[in-house]
Amino acid sequence: MLGDRPQATIISKAGAADLVDLSDFIKPFVDSGEILPRTLDELEYLLDTFFIARLDGRVVGCAALEIYSKKLCEIRSLAVDPGAQGLGIGKGLVAACVELAQREDVYEIMAISAAEDFFKSCGFDFTLPNLKRAFFLQTRDTM
Fold it and tell me: What is the pTM of this model?
């Protein structure tokens, strides 16, 4: 637990100085299979659309918005420190991504996650217009 006193969470765009912190922060989530691995090059590529959450100066969450086109973008690498979950950090990170997608005039945001209830609470749903579904085929193992 992070303590009993009220704490301020700051969500901001990540910068170049945050790359190593981001890489270190997501490592346990990658190791547990919760998110896909990201190289420093991939993190740097997404830096303009990467958000970082800090609580008392410590990284406690992150999320990126990968914009594919004006039609579609994806929330990627969403992770929140287990000790900071339940504080609204994940919702704040998703809201930052949604706001960016709206500013960029992207029509639809996709999220691939096992956290069904969380994303539903953020306004996401399974189906696309006209009951279309997204299908995936992996061409190789991720490990």
Answer: 0.84
